[in-house]
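subagent[fold] <- orchestrator: predict structure for attached chain, return tokens only, no commentary.
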Amino acid sequence: MLRGDRDWGTEANLQAAEQAGLPYLFKLRLTSNTRRLVERLMLGNQWVKAGQGWQAAESELRLTGWSCARRVVVLRRQLKKNLAVVGQNQQGPRQLSFAELTDDDVAVYEYSVLVTSLDIEMLSVAQLYRDRADAENSFDELKNHWGWGGFTTQDLKRCRFMARITALVYNWWSLFVRLADPDRHTEAITSRPLMLYGIGRQTRHAGQTRLTVSSTHAEAVKVEQCYRRIAAFFKELWATAEQFNAQQRWCRNNPALKAVCLAGIGAALMVTVNFLVTPALIVCYVLYLSIATAGQDFTGFQWDVFLLESGFLAIFLPGNSKIIHFLYRLLIARFMFMGGVVKIASGDPTWADLTALKYHYWTQPLPTPLGYYAHFLPEWWQQFCTAGVMFIELVVPLGVFMPRPFRLFAAWSFILLQSCIVLTGNYNFFNLLALLLCLFLFDDSDLAKITPQKLYTKLQQNNRSPSTSATFCSGIWAAMVVLILTTHLWMAQTQQRPYKILHELLQTASNFAVVNNYGPFAVMTTERNEIIIEGSNDGVHWLEYGFKYKPDSLDKPLSWNIPHQPRLDWQLWFAALSRPQSGGWFEKFMHRLQQGLPEVLALMASNPFPNLPPKYLRAVWYRCTFTTSDKRAATGKVWKRERLGNYYELNENYYFISKLKNKIDRTNH
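subagent[fold] -> orchestrator:
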């Protein structure tokens, strides 16, 4: 949701938010039109309580320059009867006097006028706006004094630096203080002696605490002392903290990472041979959660949390409770249904007009050989398949909770859809996991027909009734899942934040990926951009780095690589959708590549500079499409591409800096 004050309530901003489907809540300027609206509402009796002493009334308003009338909520709060009045005397000095209103019929109000697209009650609108003010007011005071769009702009470099120092100290200490005493809403103003001594002054009066931030020009000496103290602190931290070398930073030779992988393999084998199954499943879940958390951008995909949620439920499976079987059915139904919901909610026109598969096969990250031929199927067939996808994802999941014939129909529909995706696209274990979960939609009698008799007999011998403890634990977890899902639905409908205990429950479930939101393929990409990495020693002749899986050369054959997911190749597909972010993973990847780190070069298929990294390195942006079948047969080229320009560049200066860093690393090592 977009929230802000005054200038955000212009027609351009409102119209942009409405076109993007974003709800907004802005405060309007008190123009003549808004004043007339306030006057009209003040004379009415439609005011309702809006919390914290405020009252609210709503109406519609069309300001000059607006294309249409919009919902407006007016908030008012009665002021105290004793008011300070300054006399506007032009001849002499102005005089201050106090007016005490004794007439009960006279009331003085402060008021605000809000424009919003939210279709919620006025009490919630008022609370949302107060939440914005509470979150921003203190930080706005800091940023305005230190040059973030504020008043001190003559020395922009110093202003920006001090703004970041202030924000860093303020936010870090606020978090620390609140964690130390979570029951109190405590700000960290009294816990920042470094900042207060160097660049600010704290005063208390009438029960209020005020932080006055000094000007960098008026208090230059104190600011310089603050600089030195901060520099000394970080210098001491650098000298005492353990430093990682390049190999440890990239973790390829990290013993702990290897130990995690080996332990995961061992735990999986224990599950396979039916030995200490429950402890082994717990180990598998914890280890993959560790990898998914540490991997950040590279392990932040939906299938990673899908595997974690499935793996967590598997911990309860040895108890043989039917409640866990139901939760698995709920998981596969929720996963499929949310896949359809996000397609509708996104407003993507390709799903609305059933043309999504016209783009899907060649714009997906790693197409398969069959994906190439599926792209050239007739258009009517593509639309039919798109409609089938929407039907399977939006309607068929309801059959999971219906009698056996409907459940079997849902199972085979899911299997058909996931099998088609496996054949036409490389999505690692994503679809294989979904296919595996479809087993919970079948009864034992259904699976007995396709299971070898000897294996079926052994499984029946191990089949036992669930214990009381297993049923109790499964029931408790089922109640938690229902509570979390119900809270998510309530938040989606009301656009409100739940109670603190529910919010903490949702946050914990998200951190441990035990109950997740899903929605693959919400928006279909209609163009395919590719990033090609090139290096040069003279800035004229450029050589390409080869990748193992992603399309780089025009005649590179398509292949299947499931269940493996080449994380770097996948991330490059996402990176090509927009410009690189400063300090992001792609920038670091380019830096490591120009340093010539073996751990990074091992991820590449070919290195045109085997002896020494190139002086210049760049990433080139291309737009790619499939070639026609006739041209492919004649030339062997699968792709045709058009150069869009440079995506990212590293020059010779960074080459010398990287050589110096490598030398320092080797010396320290």
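orchestrator: received. Logging for downstream: Confidence is low (pLDDT under 50) at residues 142-153, 188-199, 246-252. The chain is about 50% helix and 15% strand.
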